[in-house]
Design a protein that fits this description.
Blueprint: E1 2-5, E2 12-16, E3 24-26, E4 41-44, E5 47-50, H1 53-62, E6 67-71, H2 84-93, E7 105-106, E8 111-115, E9 118-123, E10 128-136, E11 142-150, H3 152-159, E12 165-167, H4 168-176, E13 189-192, E14 195-196, H5 206-219, E15 226-227, E16 229-233, H6 237-252
Parallel strand pairs: 2-6, 7-15, 10-16, 12-13
Antiparallel strand pairs: 1-6, 2-3, 4-5, 8-9, 9-16, 10-11, 13-14
Helix pairs in contact: 1-2, 1-3, 1-5, 5-6
């Protein structure tokens, strides 16, 4: 993956450099796809780029609004399984502040998206605030709620280090399906009933914090930061995508 500067107003675009014609997908055009439970995707005319959420969370925290990202393949690198692996090289490269004013999407009315016992309630707030309740049928996670008001500093310290996770049997199934081939015990929390295998938790509630990371990254798939409060119960990428589509239709398409 190669990241290159973009001019003010160009937004964030992903380019499939391994495909003839190098098709380009611009986030502000609402190309995000719905329905995948395990990862976030964008697509245009059958061309996809997937597993964007950790990278997009890093861009949100770093306030990167304009960027061209060339990907040699359908999936972004796994890095360390969190957002830190993306934030560090950006901080080393540095940033340029552009002349244009930054745009925001402010939630102005409360709405709810539900799927069975999964729910996301969205309401107005002056900053991005997330309350997340996780409830996994595994002893080392169980049911817990975590709430945080986010900015770039709190994200980098409290959320960015949290790695992706899955249950042991899920990891085996994904590998058999040809997915997650970049996964290791260091960049993925593979969880048994007693805790992670062959690694240690970075936070006592690292899986819960990673769900917040995924939400922040998914929301920034609009290419514009969202201001609002998100109260999530047992949600994941598929429900996040439905919220994203709702925000896009209410606040982007109407402009």
């Amino acid at each position: 993956m190669i990241c290159r500067p973009a001019a003010a107003g160009e937004g964030i675009s992903f380019i499939r450099g391994d495909i003839a014609g190098s098709p380009e997908m611009r986030l502000q055009d609402g190309l995000f796809l719905e329905g995948n439970r395990r990862r976030t995707e964008i697509g245009l005319s059958g061309v996809k780029v997937q597993t964007l959420e950790h990278f997009m969370g890093a861009l949100w925290a770093l306030e990167v609004d304009n960027l061209k990202v060339e990907v040699k393949g359908p999936e972004l690198p796994a890095m360390d399984g969190s957002a830190l692996g993306f934030m560090r090289p950006f901080n080393e490269a540095g940033f340029e502040e552009l002349e244009a004013s930054r745009r925001y999407i402010s939630v102005t009315e409360t709405f709810c998206v539900e799927d069975g016992n999964r729910k996301i309630m969205v309401s107005p707030s002056e900053k991005l605030t997330v309350s997340y309740t996780i409830d996994y049928p595994i002893d080392c996670i169980g049911k817990e709620t975590f709430r945080i008001a986010l900015d770039g500093v709190t994200f980098e310290k409290e959320i960015a280090p949290a790695r992706t996770f899955c249950k042991r049997r899920e990891a085996f199934f994904l590998f058999l399906c040809g997915m997650g081939r970049g996964a290791t015990f260091e960049n993925t929390l593979i969880l048994g009933n007693k805790g992670p295998m062959a690694t240690r938790l970075r936070f006592p509630n690292e899986p819960l914090r990673h769900k917040v990371l995924d939400l922040v990254g998914d929301l920034y798939m609009l290419g514009i930061p969202v201001l609002g409060e998100f109260r999530c119960e047992r949600s994941g990428h598929a429900l996040n995508a439905r919220v994203l589509r709702e925000i896009y239709s209410r606040y982007v398409q109407k402009r």
